[in-house]
Amino acid sequence: MSITRERVQMRPSEADVSSEVLSSLINLAGRQRMLSQRIVLKAMQAFQQFDGALAVARDTLRTFADSHATLVQGRDGLPGLFSPALHDAFHGRDNVAQKIADFIALASMALEAIERSSPRADDALTALIETVDPLLTHLHGVTAVYEQESRRIARAQKKGQQELIDRIKAIAKEAHIVSFNGQIVASRANVTGREFAVVAGVMTSITRELEAVVGAFVAKTSAG
C-alpha cells in the first residue's frame, strides 16, 4: 500500500470552520483509535487463518490510511490542519504523522507476509502488536487537541458574534437619532422639508427593521 505524501496547503480561516466540521473532525480522529486496534486484531486472526480476517484487515487499514490523509490534507469539505496547534500535534516534537505512516507501512508488510505465509510473518505481526499501544496514546493526544481547538474556536466565534451585534446596535442607534432629528427639522421646513421628511421616515423604517434583525439574531445565538 503506497502512502500519499502529505501536501503543504494554505490553512483556511478558522472563522470558516463550522461546529459541524469540528464535530466531524473530532469523530474522525477518535475513530482512528478503534481502527488501529481492529487492524491488529484482524491481523492476528489472519495469522491464525480465520476466514475473511485478512480481507477485513486490509479494508480497515485502507480506511485508516484514508482517514489520516483526510485529517492532515483535508478532503470532502474538511479543512486539514487548519491551526498551528493541530499542525504541531501531527508534526511537532512527537512527530505523530510519521509514527502513523510507519504503522501503516508495518501493517501492510505484516498482512502481505501473512498472505504469503512468509517465515517472517510471525516477527512482522509481533512488531505490529508492539506498536499499537504507543500509537493509541498518540492518537488519543491528537483527538484531545481537536477537542481543545473546538472549544477555543467556539469561544472565539461567540466573541466575534457579540462584537458584530454590538456594532450593529451602535449603527442602529445612530441611524435612529439621525432619522428622529431629520423628522424634527423637516416639520419646520417648507415643501423641500416635506420631501426630506419622507426620506427620514424611510430611514426610521429601516432602523426598526435593523433592530428587529439584531433582536432575532441575538435570540438565535443565545439559544444555540
From TrEMBL:
Domain NarX-like N-terminal stretches: 20-90
Q: Does the keyword ATP-binding apply?
A: no
The entry's keywords: Membrane, Transmembrane, Transmembrane helix
Q: State its location(s).
A: Membrane
Q: Name one GO cellular component term.
A: membrane
Q: What is this protein called?
A: Pilus assembly protein PilP
Its chief place of residence is membrane
Pfam family, any one = PilJ
Native species: Paraburkholderia lacunae
Membrane topology recorded in Swiss-Prot or TrEMBL: Multi-pass membrane protein
